[in-house]
From TrEMBL:
Primary localization: membrane
InterPro entries, per database record: DUF92_TMEM19
Protein name in UniProt: Protein vte6, chloroplastic
One Gene Ontology term, aspect cellular component: chloroplast inner membrane
Gene name of the record: VTE6
Record carries keyword Transmembrane: yes
Taxonomy, superkingdom: Eukaryota
Alphabetical UniProt keywords: Membrane, Transmembrane, Transmembrane helix
Annotated PANTHER family: TRANSMEMBRANE PROTEIN 19 (PTHR13353)
Family, as annotated: Belongs to the TMEM19 family.
Length: 320
């Protein structure tokens, strides 16, 4: 530290001048911590470049996946990817309502549905599954004690999935292949919604009737029979089934699959079809010579009848 005055400017105050000590002979041989080894610098650059490239690649894959899911009209690729994502996220719920083979069948159904009718059709089927599974679980212990509960704690197998969706799958195939042209596109979608309204109404009425039905009777003879008897109905179950059909048809309406008259058609067709299913169950099922007429076969007949009735009613309305 050196103190001095500026002789050329006598009026100025004393200034302090600091001179940096010259210890270069001590510091010249020490490594500079801020100077990187060229090889190390190159390695870090490469690592950063790889990480940045990986981040960009991951972002690109995600963007392509989102674009694929949002494909309009849907493609087989978008249907497969969408179902893979949804089934992975919803696996806990699926396991509670389906067996392993049943999940496989449901995946095929979901893929076909998404390809034909997009996310709206998939949401309709998902709503059907959630409500149907919940109804099956109602008073499960009581149903098991009475011997009228579904097998495997209500977990459905592939036969049940196929039997419940056969008509819907036919409608999906007809729509994908453009059978009948654009004039029939909405008709196949109406039949699709009607098939699941019919099946959900049948499932809910049966399960709620088993759980809460006070009086169950055959529709053919009005004879009072125990709960769970094939072809038997109850006021409680019938009302619950009607509400379920209304709810699912309303979902179809909100999703733009059907209009208001179409929703009413689905409800009416489902109730007529379920009455026909009760007639078949009471008069033919489990009778000699009709051992082949099991629940899965009756389900196919039931939902097919609901779809056909909806199409016929729509055609009659259009013609008049």
């Amino acid at each position: 530290m050196v103190f001095s005055t500026l002789s050329s400017s006598p009026g100025l105050p004393l200034l302090l001048h600091y001179q940096k000590p010259k210890f270069s002979y001590l510091t010249s041989n020490l490594p500079n911590p801020f100077t990187l080894n060229p090889r190390h610098h190159l390695k870090m650059s490469k690592t950063s470049s790889i990480k940045a490239h990986a981040s960009v690649s991951d972002l690109g894959i995600m963007e392509r996946a989102i674009q694929l899911v949002q494909s309009s009209p849907p493609t087989w690729q978008s249907a497969l990817l969408s179902n893979l994502i949804i089934f992975t996220l919803g696996s806990p719920l699926l396991v509670s309502g389906l067996s392993l083979s049943g999940i496989g069948a449901a995946f095929l159904l979901g893929t076909l549905t998404w390809r034909a009718f997009g996310s709206s059709g998939f949401l309709l089927v998902a709503t059907y599954f959630v409500i149907g599974t919940a109804a099956t679980k109602v008073k499960m212990a009581q149903k098991e004690a009475q011997g009228v509960a579904e097998k495997r704690k209500g977990r459905r197998g592939p036969g049940s999935v196929i039997g419940s969706s056969a008509a819907g799958c036919v409608c999906a195939f007809l729509s994908i292949n453009g059978v009948g042209g654009e004039a029939f596109t909405r008709l196949w979608e109406l039949a699709f919604v009607a098939s699941f309204c019919t099946k959900l109404s049948d499932t809910v009425s049966s399960e709620i009737g088993k759980a809460y039905g006070k009086t169950t009777y055959l529709v053919t003879t009005f004879k009072v029979v125990p709960r769970g008897t094939e072809g038997a109905v109850s006021a409680e179950g019938t009302f619950a089934g009607l509400l379920a059909s209304v709810l699912l048809s309303f979902v179809g309406y909100l999703m733009g699959q059907i209009n208001a008259p179409g929703a009413a058609i689905c409800v009416i067709a489902s109730q007529i079809a379920n009455f026909g299913e009760s007639l078949i169950g009471a008069s033919l099922q489990e009778k000699e010579g009709f051992q082949w007429l099991n629940n899965d076969v009756v389900n196919v007949i039931n939902i097919s009848l609901g779809s056909i009735l909806a199409v016929l009613m729509q055609q009659i309305i259009l013609q008049t």
